[in-house]
């Protein structure tokens, strides 16, 4: 059997078992609502609800929400000592930065930290432990033909007078209303979907299954076309364009009301996390200084995207604090401009509330504009982003500095992953710049790089040296850098090791000892065991002419300047932001058009799923609809898959490094 089919069957078995376990512990649902329903012509099939068990009192959906901090908050019920999370490089993240003096951890807590370090997901779940999802109900649905139901009723009788029964079926896309009545007496039963409610608690004409179906279509990037293709295959009436848009606008409006309320819990959890390290807000302003990572992303590739998004992520907990969606395009305005219709003040006033354009600049400047808006409104959340982790783009940092949103300067730290790529970029640029003119055997002149050719600056050499440069920048897990000089020596060790020969060994920067990754220094420590020569495995730069090595050394010198290394000392990354970009554009495909309303809605869904988890963030349950056992099992499965995909795989290389045989597997190990 092919491996893919085995994987599919295995996942299906896991889902089935989770669903059965969830049903065994679930509570019965409340009795069905008696809301009104608009009649329609019955189609050949309906989505039929099985009769629910007797009603019982269930727990509330969520506990009361904690208020937003405006002064030094106290949380005695959940102020637990949390261990800092680990970054993607394996280096332990330091406690959040503060202007106050930070307490030193005790010996016992330090020992526990080494034994087991919590991941950022575990930290978020611990801080949001009061926001657990409600217990799913054991509710199951069947898709069955109306004619089949009538055949069943032909052999059934009224329990009061034993007269025949009649069936009345009315359907509305995925929702349905079934009425079974006695032909002789008034005995009967009505089965219908619950209706959605507005934010004020009033009933609407939108039914449960329709709302859930439209939400899944929008959230999974299949749209009205994909949803209608599925339900039409099952013999169910499809959604019209108008009905689908009414449901999406309802979801957008409810999410705009729901999202700020849930994010207050996230801000409160950030305050709690910093309190666990005795880092409190300023007494005068009530603002808390935190470290965040910021990155921007565009909907389409190139420099012609009409939509850009910026995310702010707290680096120690991984909480998404805020986001900004920028759009410089509106279909209505564009259509009016093509028709050369004047934009009168009266029309602009009517259109302003529904216009999708909130920015008039270029696509390249969207990331800078998003950063300005996010830093400007951070004080409304009770926070100050005084330190932020960014990539090599200096325009964002300059914009924040010019904005000067606080009375303290904003400090920037570099993402070590982006810094690691700079060596490869600089070497490829150097190879293109060092060109010369040669004459071929046929007498034709052509341009050629002085660093091209065998044993020169090949692509494989660039990739290898870039990898070693990245390892040196990140450092080792159990031996963090204490100064920028240590990092500089580790980086230069890879260069000098690569240019060494038997006639001129240059291993002064390589670590000494028998456990060194450098074969030459190991040979110095034990000459009987290690006797390898440079000629047996030449360095990557050893055969490059000496007159050309100076240009390569200058690249290394530029990348080891003091200011750059200072910004890399803590080993921060933007991995959380890059992961968010992937999640966002999986739900909003780059090759399809999407407006700012949909991108804004999906960004809110992605943020809630990231902060609270799939099950606790499931939006339809916050609209008043119960989560079934099957859906709860599916959400738990998605959460496990998300955690599994974000967990680094233990390859043979990691296993050998973990077992203690770390030669050739640490920074500069070659």
UniProtKB/TrEMBL annotation:
Start-end of Polar residues biased regions: 80-92, 99-111, 660-670
Organism domain of life: Eukaryota
Stretches the record annotates as Disordered: 1-112, 644-670
Coiled coil, from the record: none
Stretches with biased composition (Pro residues): 40-66
InterPro entries linked to this entry: Mutator_transp_dom (IPR049012)
Signal peptide annotation: none
Protein name (Swiss-Prot/TrEMBL): Mutator-like transposase domain-containing protein
